[in-house]
Each structure stands twice: as structure tokens, then as C-alpha cells.
Amino acid sequence: MQNKKYKSLSTKIVISITIVSLTILLIVFAVFDRVNTKSFYTIEMEKANLIADTIEPLLALDIYLGLHDKTEQLTHKLIENKNILLVRVTQGGKILNETKSPAFESDEGSPFVVTKKILQPNSDKMIGQLELVYSNRNYKELQDKYMKITLL
Q1: Which of 50, 79, 124, 138 is paired with 85 by a 20 to 30 Å CA distance?
Q2: Per residue in 47-89, pLDDT tens?
Q3: pTM for the full predicted model
Q4: How far is the C-alpha of 58 from the C-alpha of 118, rounded, in Å?
Q5: What distance in Å separates the CA atoms of residue 150 and residue 46, rounded to the nearest whole number?
Q6: Strand 94-100 vs strand 112-119: parallel, antiparallel, or unpaired?
């Protein structure tokens, strides 16, 4: 005698609906995770780029005028931001200033690195380069929070 438990049409329909629902739920979760990860990455990268874009004209003016002590003051001010791990200003391959945060060595993972040309004021002539290393701590925290929310 065959087992009638799994032969009825209603049982097959319920099992099929359950499998399809779970599959759709997993796909939706994966898509949300991917979209959130990309969005959070973009947000943090834009923050780092905004800082670099804001500071570049000030550095350009200081380098152009030969005020290297002002460049150093500016980079030290930037390091006060807990998310900025390193600011390096170079000119012709030579490091003019490099300021590291105390958290630079202890930061885990791969931080965001923004490199920006420093252009002579009112010109397109490159007079230096700015390298900004921005922590990925906020990115990881946002990812973890939304992963927990999504799972709940």
C-alpha cells in the first residue's frame, strides 16, 4: 500500500508554495543585501571624496605660496576627524606632509583611499597630490545593523 500522505493534490500544492516562498524570500534577502552593501559603500566613498574635494583648494593655495607649515596644520586638523586615518600630501614624488591618526595601525579591513590631484590655483597645472585614507568602520557598522534588521 502506497503512502497517501504525499499523494494528495492539496499536500503537493502546499509543499510547492512553501518551497517557492522560501526561494523568493532568499532571493529578496540577497538582493537587499547586495543593494545595501553597494549603497553604503557609495555613501562612505562620497564622504571621503567630499572631504578631499573640500580640502584640495586650501592645500593648493598653501603649496603654491610655499606655506608648508600651513599645510601641516591643515592635515593635523583633518586627523581630528575620527574617520580619517591618514593624510599625505606629495609634490613631485616627494612627501611634503604625512599625518597619521593613532587609529591608523589598528584599523581593520580595507579603508577607503582617495587620491586627488592638487592643482595650481586658477590653472590645470598639477602641483601636488593628496592621498586621504578614510576608515571603513562606519561602512561595516551600517552593514551589520541592516543585516540584523533584514534578518528580523
Answers
A1: 124
A2: 889 999 999 999 999 888 888 888 888 888 888 888 888 999 9
A3: 0.71
A4: 9
A5: 24
A6: unpaired
